[in-house]
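User: Can you help me understand a structure? I only have the sequence.
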Amino acid sequence: MCDTFIALPSATRDSTLLFSKNSDREPDEAQAIVHVPHQIHAEANVRCTYISIPQVAETYECIISKPFQMRGAEMGVNEHGVVIGNEAVFTKVKFEKHNNGLTGMDMLRLALERCTSSREAIACITGLLTLYGQNACGGYKNKKFYYHNSFLIADPNEAWVLETAGKEWAIEKVKDIRSISNTLSISTQAEQLSSSAMDYAHSRGWWKENTAFNFQKAYSDWLYTTLGRASGRQACTTELSLRHAGKLDVNDCINILKTHNLPEDKFKPSKANTGSVCMHATSLLNPSSTTGSMVAKIRKSGPHTIWLTGTPHPCLSVYIPFFFGTNVLSELAVPGAQPDDSLWWKAELVHRWISKDYRKRKALLETKRQVLQHLFLEKEAALIRNSSSISELEQFSKDCLQEVLCAYSDWMKLIN
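Assistant: Let's start by predicting it. Here is the structure, written out as tokens:
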């Protein structure tokens, strides 16, 4: 489960593009923030999750958030301001379960590494779909978790929704504000379809020729989509974004990503369900937790700011700013499969402790968390306003990361 939403410059306070996403995965699947440098490649192939495909000669600098054990990414940005997030979607197209295709996360990272615009990224992903398909397990410990993918894809100038079912796909151009979740959402408004999308649906009795073609209706699997409450979460992020239309800022996006299925004065992690945007796993019917979160601020001129938690549960996290052309992420330990000294695992252990008495224990760190977030947002705005150098932005990012690491070291003392 995941949620992703975007506000184009026409809908934001300072006419920048804001792209936000929660990555919901299995609760102990640590998520790593990784800096991928601009590279020239001599090797012929690149290894993805299950298969190898031909490598390109040159790939671009990226900042991504990814499950620790996978090459592919849940979300990220590249040096050209291309930003992508993906969603699991559940369709009528069946899987062979041979793991001979690409995961959505594979395709997302490949597009970031290879593309200079959102249109190039659409062409890249749809091309990969045609060549390799997505017959690939997307689970961690759950090896039966197969799904198709939707993508929200943007650059400084425009944004698109790309939704897939097997090798079929549809795209829709974004206007102002758009949200996607774990459901197909392109109905009859597709700007373009895969060449066989209509014929494939017709051959299986999912669409009648004498009716308007509706990609969502033709391909969506009702049961899994309904159980995941995806339409409710999509409506929630859309409605909350629209409340701030024309004045949306990073702090608004962070607050939306923290939203639960109950009012905060009544919320307990044990009462969470799949209607929560900030997700807390509770049962077989609600198996996912938000394991990482991002708000990307994409500017037509000036540096992009990529706000990433590097920790689970946005409601308990601090978003840290990162910038291209810096080396801060080399200092951040990549988490492993078991608790270790990484930021992600320190936060996970603190958050587990808080969850046992959520409101009381959250209050012990909430003031510090809010102060840090406010200071980071204020200082970033001032640095950008003053056209600060890359070295100044790098030092600021490094200081923010260190502040959060120190905070979690202090909070770890509460549970020992």
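Now, to help you interpret it: Residues 281 and 288 are 5 Å apart (CA to CA). The chain has a mean pLDDT of 96. Let me know which part you'd like to focus on.
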